[in-house]
Amino acid sequence: MVFNFPANDTLINDEKNFGSQVTYYEEMRRIGRNAVWEQYGDIIITRPVDKRENFIKRCVGLPGDNIKLVNGKLFINDKPEDYFPQSERMHLMTVPAGTALDRERLEEFGIKIRESQNDLQQYDENIYLVNITNEEKANLKLPEGYKIEDFISPPTGDLFPYYDTSHHWSGDNFGPIWVPKKGSTIELTPDNVIRYQRCIQVYEENKFENKGGKIFINDVAADRYTFKMDYYWLMGDNRHKSLDSRYWGFVPEDHVVGKASLIWFSTENGPRWKRIFTWIK
Question: Residue 27: pLDDT band by 50, 70, 90 thresholds?
């Protein structure tokens, strides 16, 4: 099975963008719903919302895991995520007064950016937003007068679970949040019901009502719920440019299409030969 999707870690299987210069193709191994493949760090294809689109993301949270982001750093069950060299995020780079920062200058520092993806943006006077991979940052040696620091996104109202205004989460400071596991029972509280209502009502097809703070499931008063399916937490490697579980929540097992395995073709202003026919890690 071959999918086509933009290189900026977003929507795939989009006929409108098929064959454009910023798309590339992935060959997926389609697997059965009950196959034992789910591992932390897998790149999988999912259908995260009730639409026909497919997305490709990294599985960072398995059923039963606790997920949180602290100043852009992801923790799974209070342990930091594995190191992925090509994972990238935006950074603030301060340059000497009167200095311009462009693609050529960044390449001298060992940073390769994609102009088509706005990987370099003016942020403030003498400060730029630059998208940098983990590997580039680890090998970065800046001249005197240059400084780099993590960019931390501010709280926003478009994150899952949408109507939760009490926690002030952001794309870089999020959670903790527990990923539902098949057979696990949770107590339904005012704090967590907003996170799990969609799983209970939409994905697991129950009638769900909140009457004055009292929960009714299939017309029966309920203070607990046992999940029927496993769920997953997915995040893109391009952390500040990824629509993922931070925006659309948990992915149920029956929305998983398969596992990404091979980059069949890659192009951006011409073929990217180093990526063609390489295995996805």
Answer: very low
